[in-house]
Amino acid sequence: MFDLLTQDHPLPRIAVFGVGGCGCNTINQLAASPLSDNVQLVAVNTDAQSLAASQCNTRLQIGLETTKGLGAGAKPEKGHEAAQESAAQLKELITFADIIFITGGMGGGTGTGAIPFIASIATELNKPLVAVVTTPFSFEGHQRNRLANNGVEQLMQQANAVIVLPNDKLIETLEKKISLLNAFFESNRILQDVLLGLTTTISQSGLINIDLNDFIAVVSHQGRAAMGVAKQEKGEDLQVTINNALKNPLLEEVDLTHAKGAIVSVMATEDIELSQYNSIGASIQQQLDPSALVIIGLTIVPELECELELMIIATGIQAPSAHNAILADATTIPPKKDRFNSLELVNVSDLLKAKSRDGRNDPSYETELDIPTYTRQNNLAKGL
Ligand SMILES: Nc1nc2c(ncn2[C@@H]2O[C@H](COP(=O)(O)OP(=O)(O)OP(=O)(O)O)[C@@H](O)[C@H]2O)c(=O)[nH]1
Ligand SMILES: [Mg+2]
C-alpha cells in the first residue's frame, strides 16, 4: 500500500493589482499568460471604458462618485480620493491575499494617486508587497515627471520594495524606430516577465523552494528594488547570463552593491550541475552588500528549451531621496533638443490620437492598450 502525500501548506495566494491605464495594460498582457490558480489579477481604474476592455476576471472601478467613471484627469489627488472612496473593496481584495504586487504608471492621476494608497492598506494589513511602477518619458513634460517623482516618494513611504522602470530607458535601449505602442508593449513585457517569474516561483514546488517566509524576509528591506531576467541559451556562458540579469538595461540605474537582499529564481532542466547552481549564488552574492541575504530557488522544468532561466529581485537598495531625485532630474536632463534628433521625437498625444483613429478598424487595439482618458476626451471634444 502507499500513502497519498497531501500538501500541508497550501500555495500562497498572490494578488496582482494593475492600477490606472498603464497598470491595466500590463495586467491585460499578463492575463494572456499561463498563470497558476493561486494568482488573482485585479484591474483597478477610475476609467470605466478602460476597465470594460480589460480581460481580467476581477475588475474594480474605484471612485465612482469622485470621477464618474471618466478617469482622474492627470490629477493624483483625484486618484487618491477615488481609492479612498473605494477603500472597503480594496481592503477586501487585499485581505484575501498573502502577497501583493501592485503595478502602474506614475505621472497620471489614477496610478500616481491610488497606488500609494493601496500600498498603505497592504502595509496596514501587514501583507508583503512589491510595487513595480514606470516613470514617464521626459518628452511627456516636466509636470508629469514632477507628479511621478512625488508619487514614487509617497509610495516609498508605504511599500518596502519599489521597482522603478523609467520609460526613458526604453528610448535608449530599443530600436529608434520602434513605435510608442511597441515601446510600451516591451516595457510591459518586462513587468510581465518578472511578475510571471515570481508568481511561478512562489507557486511551484521546486526542488529548492522559495516559500512565503523567504519572500517576506527579502522584500521587507526598505528601499528601492531592482529586477532582472535572463536566459542562458545552450552553449552560452553562465556568467554572461548572470550579468545580463543583473544589468537589465530597461531598469533604473541602481547601485546593487548596496542591496540588502535578493530572491533568485532558477529554472533549469535536470541536467543542471551543482557547480552551476553554486556559481549563480556566489556570483550574485559577490555583487551585493556583503551582509545581503540571498535566497535561491531552483525549479526543474524538463521541457525547458534553453539551458536555464534566471530571475533576480534585489531589495533594500538605498536610493537618493526622491527630493534629491527631483533636483537631479531637473538639473541633469538637458533640454530635449540637445538630447534627441527632433526627427526621432514622437508626440505622445498625436501618436495615440492617430492610433485611436486607426484602432477603429482594428478591434484588438482598444483591448490591448489603454488610450489615456485625457486624450480620448480631447478626441471626443474635437469630434475625432
Ligand atoms: N510602460 C508603459 N507606460 C505607460 C503605459 N501607459 C501609460 N504609461 C505611462 O504611465 C503614465 C501614466 O499614464 P496612465 O497610466 O495612462 O495614467 P492613469 O494612471 O490612468 O491616470 P489618469 O488617466 O490621469 O487617471 C504615462 O505618463 C506614461 O508615461 C503602458 O502601457 N506602458
Ligand atoms: Mg487613465
TrEMBL record:
<dbReference type="InterPro" id="IPR000158">
    <property type="entry name" value="Cell_div_FtsZ"/>
</dbReference>
<dbReference type="InterPro" id="IPR036525">
    <property type="entry name" value="Tubulin/FtsZ_GTPase_sf"/>
</dbReference>
<dbReference type="Pfam" id="PF00091">
    <property type="entry name" value="Tubulin"/>
</dbReference>
<feature type="binding site">
    <location>
        <begin position="109"/>
        <end position="111"/>
    </location>
    <ligand>
        <name>GTP</name>
    </ligand>
</feature>
<dbReference type="InterPro" id="IPR024757">
    <property type="entry name" value="FtsZ_C"/>
</dbReference>
<keyword id="KW-0342">GTP-binding</keyword>
<dbReference type="InterPro" id="IPR008280">
    <property type="entry name" value="Tub_FtsZ_C"/>
</dbReference>
<keyword id="KW-0717">Septation</keyword>
<comment type="function">
    <text>Essential cell division protein that forms a contractile ring structure (Z ring) at the future cell division site. The regulation of the ring assembly controls the timing and the location of cell division. One of the functions of the FtsZ ring is to recruit other cell division proteins to the septum to produce a new cell wall between the dividing cells. Binds GTP and shows GTPase activity.</text>
</comment>
<comment type="similarity">
    <text>Belongs to the FtsZ family.</text>
</comment>
<dbReference type="InterPro" id="IPR018316">
    <property type="entry name" value="Tubulin/FtsZ_2-layer-sand-dom"/>
</dbReference>
<dbReference type="InterPro" id="IPR045061">
    <property type="entry name" value="FtsZ/CetZ"/>
</dbReference>
<feature type="domain" description="Tubulin/FtsZ 2-layer sandwich">
    <location>
        <begin position="208"/>
        <end position="326"/>
    </location>
</feature>
<keyword id="KW-0132">Cell division</keyword>
<dbReference type="Pfam" id="PF12327">
    <property type="entry name" value="FtsZ_C"/>
</dbReference>
<dbReference type="InterPro" id="IPR020805">
    <property type="entry name" value="Cell_div_FtsZ_CS"/>
</dbReference>
<keyword id="KW-0547">Nucleotide-binding</keyword>
<keyword id="KW-0131">Cell cycle</keyword>
<dbReference type="InterPro" id="IPR003008">
    <property type="entry name" value="Tubulin_FtsZ_GTPase"/>
</dbReference>
<keyword id="KW-0963">Cytoplasm</keyword>
<feature type="binding site">
    <location>
        <position position="144"/>
    </location>
    <ligand>
        <name>GTP</name>
    </ligand>
</feature>
<comment type="subunit">
    <text>Homodimer. Polymerizes to form a dynamic ring structure in a strictly GTP-dependent manner. Interacts directly with several other division proteins.</text>
</comment>
<feature type="domain" description="Tubulin/FtsZ GTPase">
    <location>
        <begin position="13"/>
        <end position="206"/>
    </location>
</feature>
<feature type="binding site">
    <location>
        <position position="188"/>
    </location>
    <ligand>
        <name>GTP</name>
    </ligand>
</feature>
<dbReference type="GO" id="GO:0051301">
    <property type="term" value="P:cell division"/>
</dbReference>
<feature type="binding site">
    <location>
        <position position="140"/>
    </location>
    <ligand>
        <name>GTP</name>
    </ligand>
</feature>
<protein>
    <recommendedName>
        <fullName>Cell division protein FtsZ</fullName>
    </recommendedName>
</protein>
